[in-house]
């Protein structure tokens, strides 16, 4: 019982390990833990792990010589290949991976007797939000009932507080220090409460006009974020968007039952109120050439997203009745709802996009919706909450089924998807590779087959204009400038650079690009906000359950496209915001050098 409790406490500590911890220290602690777990019968484990621990201790204590690196690698390698059981082998492998992956940290200890990791011990939630939003600050403002100020504070780093409140995948919660006590803070849920409570919050004033002109290609969250900050800095910004409306995948991907369209429209209008000019239904590379834009503007930001669909490559994929997820969601984004009444819909894929398609198909009146995935449910890349929501709405999950071909009926249209049952095989990259089971193929009748196996980037027009492309994505450096020097003044970011990712990553890329374009144009504007953060209350933080948002009942919500999620109540927001440990002010994670008021 006591041992179970200790293990449980240890798991919580690991869950709360913030980024920035010393990898040598971590490796030694894991190694000692594994050493305590071994049976001690084989020499490599009993003696070898102890020796490794002494070597790592030398590194940490500043006693190590350069040859220690070799000793550590050789000892770990020898244990990994000779220990009699998995405990010893894995412990040594862990050290081996660490010494190779974090070589710089080891050398810093050996040469300079100090730790690289400790130098930048960050507040965990802030470090993991790609845009670096001041999370403890806005939670404190919500707790003080100052939701409008919370929105102002968020906008300093992210002009899309509403979008992120509804659909952000909240990586910031992963290592929340509150995990040590009970559970991570509901950071996204609190942001949702703030945006719902604050209503319309006026935008800050723009800096004096600089006379510089910037073109942004692509009106998704990435492009609009860059446009927003550039406009605040006083530059004249024109956004060129290929589709009828702005929003990118926030409109043409994410269904309105997750992010209501009127909320998206309000947020975009608020951003445009800074004086940004928009040219919709202009396809750059077709309606206007990239070179023409270069001649007209002082700088260009390319943020065209990932909008082509990937294919499965199985026979019959070109048949009428086979559609791509991108195609289907794009039509819905423009309010052109396909009629699925009484139809059998089969969706291929196991990611979030596949879930958006299956759940939309349910709402479009389908008689039956099946989701075919070649691995196990636990291996799906979709968020578990999305998969559970889809199942609750009546979607049938057909896991461990690999699509083989699409059968066409007499009229040439798709009539069925044939699948080959799979069984889990060897584990690679953390997931078992599916392999054919010794079972016959199965026929799944289908009126429509939707392929949701990923998106690519439409790079051709840009490649012709000389934009560097690497493995299907636009090649930009970490400062968002293009990898080629003759593209002076041209920057890129978002999904078209990283491949399909997330809204907050595209927003963060837009923010970085705005800062770099501003520097390129010869300025150094600062984006700041004059919101004072309440001082933390000195009170005991007793264990307290996390307050979650709720959802409308499945039987009701599956009939419409209205928002599924119900936000926190006043009471819920008050309780939840009180749980924050204010790592900005207390403990090893406090903001070094004070809060970042401007960037
Ligand atoms: C179905 C689906 C669900 C998703 N769900 C989530 C989620 O829940 N949470 C989350 O964080 N992320 C989610 N994402 C991912 C997220 O939407 C994207 O990562 C994000 O929108 C990328 O932003 P972006 O600005 O780089 O590109 P986009 O949003 O794709 O915007 C690019 C814009 O450029 C325009 N464009 C393209 N080519 C040209 C051209 N030649 N000329 C002019 N304009 C052009 C496009 O029309 C588009 O409007 C989802 C994506 C999909 C597809
Ligand atoms: S934008 Fe996303 S990652 Fe950043 S604080 Fe909000 S929920 Fe967390
Ligand atoms: S307790 Fe608060 S400040 Fe600390 S990591 Fe969690 S949300 Fe961030």
Per-chain topology:
Elements (H helix, E strand, L loop, with lengths): L1 H14 L7 H15 L5 H19 L5 H16 L3 H16 L1 H10 L3 H4 L4 H5 L6 H9 L3 H9 L5 H7 L19 H12 L14 E5 L3 H12 L3 E5 L8 H4 L8 H12 L4 E3 L10 H7 L2 E4 L5 E2 L12 E3 H9 L10 E5 L3 H12 L4 E5 L11 H9 L3 E3 L2 E8 L5 E15 L2 E6 L5 E4 L2 E4 L3 E2 L3 H5 L4 E2 L2 E2 L15 E3 L2 H4 L4 H18 L29 E2 L2 H4 L7 E2 L3 H9 L21
Parallel strand pairs: 1-2, 1-4, 2-3, 4-18, 6-14, 7-8, 7-14, 8-9
Antiparallel strand pairs: 5-15, 10-11, 11-12, 11-13, 16-17, 19-20
Helix pairs in contact: 2-3, 2-5, 3-4, 3-5, 4-5, 9-10, 9-12, 9-24, 10-12, 11-12, 13-22, 18-19
The protein binds flavin-adenine dinucleotide and iron/sulfur cluster (2 copies).
Characterization of this structure:
Helix content is 40%, strand content 14%. The chain has 599 residues and is α/β, with parallel strands linked by helices. The protein folds into four domains: 98 residues, NADH-ubiquinone oxidoreductase 51kDa subunit, iron-sulphur binding domain (de novo design (two linked rop proteins)); 123 residues, Orthogonal Bundle (Fumarate Reductase Iron-sulfur Protein, Chain B, domain 2), CATH 1.10.1060; 159 residues, FAD/NAD(P)-binding domain; 145 residues, 3-Layer(bba) Sandwich (FAD/NAD(P)-binding domain), CATH 3.50.50. α3 runs parallel beside α5, α9 packs across α12 and α13 packs parallel to α22. β7, α18 and β8 form a beta-alpha-beta unit. The protein contains 24 helices and 20 strands. The chain is globular. The protein has a five-stranded parallel beta sheet with strand order 3-2-1-4-18, with helices on both faces. The model has no long low-confidence stretch (mean pLDDT 92). The structure holds flavin-adenine dinucleotide and iron/sulfur cluster (2 copies).
